[in-house]
Amino acid sequence: MDQTPPEKLLIGAHTSAAGGVSQAVLKANLIEATTFQFFTSNQKQWHGKEISDEEAHLFLEFQKRYDYSHIMSHGSYLINLGSIKEDLRQKSQEAFERELKRCHKLKLSYLNFHPGAYTTGVLEESLDLIVESLLSLEKLCSEGPTRLLLETTAGQGTSIGHKFEHLNYIIERVKNYIPIGVCIDTCHIFAAGYDIRSFEAWEKTLLDFENVIGLKHLYAFHLNDSKHDLGLKKDRHANLGHGKIGLDCFHYLMTDPKVRALPKYLETPNGEIMWKDEIALLKDLATKEKALS
Q: Does the domain spanning 6-285 belong to CATH 3.30.1120.10?
C-alpha cells in the first residue's frame, strides 16, 4: 500500500475534463481537493479524442502548480475484458490500451477500471479472459508510471469483482508481470454484502480483505454512501451521511492508520454543489478521535 504523510491527506473527487483534461485540475483546485479522478476521454465512446501534446503539457503544468499527486483515471464503462464475445473483447482490449497510453502521457498514478462481466458465459472463463487481457499489457505497462486498479463492484447481473475472491484470482495471476492493485468503492462493497457501517464492521471487512487479497494490494477508495441497504446489489450512490452506510464508515477511513493515508475520491451526487463541503467534512472527520487500530 502507498503511504503518504498524514498532514497531506489525499481527498478529492471525480472532476470534469470538459474543455480539455487540464480543466480537471482546475476544477479540483476549486473544491479544495488534494487529489482527483477524471475521465481522460469520453467514457461513452469507443474511440475518444486523443490528448494533444499541448494539452498534456498544460495538464502537467497545472498539476505541478497545485501540487497534485495520486491522480487517477477512471476507465470507460464500455470496456469488458471478460466478455466471451471475441469482437467485444477485442474492442475492449484496444480501448483499454488507448486509455493506458493516455494515462502514461499524463503521468497518472492509477487507472481504475471495472473488471468486466461474464454475461452469457461462466465466471471462471471470464476471469481467465481478464487475466489473459491484462497479461498482454506487460510491455505497455512498463512504458509509464500508471498502476492498474481493479474496482470492487456491487454485484449487479453477472458483473465480476463483488467478491474479494474474484479480485484475488486476477491479482495472483498478473502481479508478477504488471503493476496491479484494488480500489474499494464503499457503495459497491456495501451493496455486495460487506458491512462497513461501523468501526468494528470495517475491522472485520478489512481483515477479510487481508486474508483473501492482502492489504498491500489496496491503493485507493471511492467514497460514496448508498441509497440502498446492505447486500441488495444495487449501485446507487448517495451523499456522505445521507444513505444507508452513514458517517461512521467515513470517519473510520479518515482516521484508521491502515487506510488513512490512501487516496480517496468522491463520486457522490450533486458534485458541483456538494464536493467542496464533503471534502471539508472528511478533513474534519480526520481530526476527530481515531478509529480502532
A: no
In angstroms, the CA 101 to CA 207 distance is: 35
Alpha-carbon Rg for the chain in angstroms: 18
**What distances in angstroms separate CA 123 from CA 6, 22, 116, one per listed residue?**
40, 39, 10
- Output phi, psi for 113, to 5 deg: -150, 155
C-alpha distances in Å from residue 150, one per residue of 12, 223, 282: 19, 15, 24
The pLDDT-based confidence of 20 (bands split at 50, 70, 90) is: very high
For residue range 43-82, list pLDDT tens digits in order: 888 888 889 999 999 999 999 999 999 999 999 999 999 9
Q: How far is CA 136 from CA 87, 110, 114, 133, 144, in A?
A: 17, 18, 17, 5, 15
Domain positions in the chain = 6-285
Instruction: Name the DSSP letter for residue 216.
Output: G
